[in-house]
Amino acid sequence: MSDNKNSNNPQSLENNSNIHMYQLPNEDVNEARTGKGFFDRDISKIPCFKPSLLYGIGSALAVTLLTSFFPLKGRLKSPDYGIISFLIVSGGYWPICNYNHNVQNKKIKQLMDAQVAEMNRKEQEKLKMAEELKKQENK
């Protein structure tokens, strides 16, 4: 910030020394790996993949067990109900989890921006105080 000759002009984000203090993990879903993962993607980088699969598998097991203990009349057997519940639960949980994940990341970024703005404001105050002291010393 001391590179600026005019302290009233805010510093751009590209040149801001405080902006890179907090790094969020890179969550690029399209990042390809060499032959490992799901469709050549690293599963650990895909947000909400693991919880949606776990909830889907858990619901499929529960529904399969319940329908095998209490059989229903009709064309569908208990594994069919399990597969249907897996598809519904995992497919329904994915967008809910992604929405919550995006909202949380947005709040984190807003908080980080507010912290950077506060740090810049304090640094601007320090520069103004230093300029005032120099002016008083020169008088």
TrEMBL record:
Entry keyword set: Coiled coil, Membrane, Mitochondrion, Mitochondrion inner membrane, Transmembrane, Transmembrane helix
GO biological process: mitochondrial respiratory chain complex IV assembly
Pfam families: Cox20
Subcellular location: Mitochondrion inner membrane
Coiled-coil residue windows: 105-139
GO cellular component annotations of the record: mitochondrial inner membrane; mitochondrion
Ranges that cross the membrane: 53-72, 79-96
KW Flavoprotein (keyword) present: no
Family membership: Belongs to the COX20 family.
Name of protein: Cytochrome c oxidase assembly protein COX20, mitochondrial
Organism of this sequence: Dictyostelium purpureum (Slime mold)
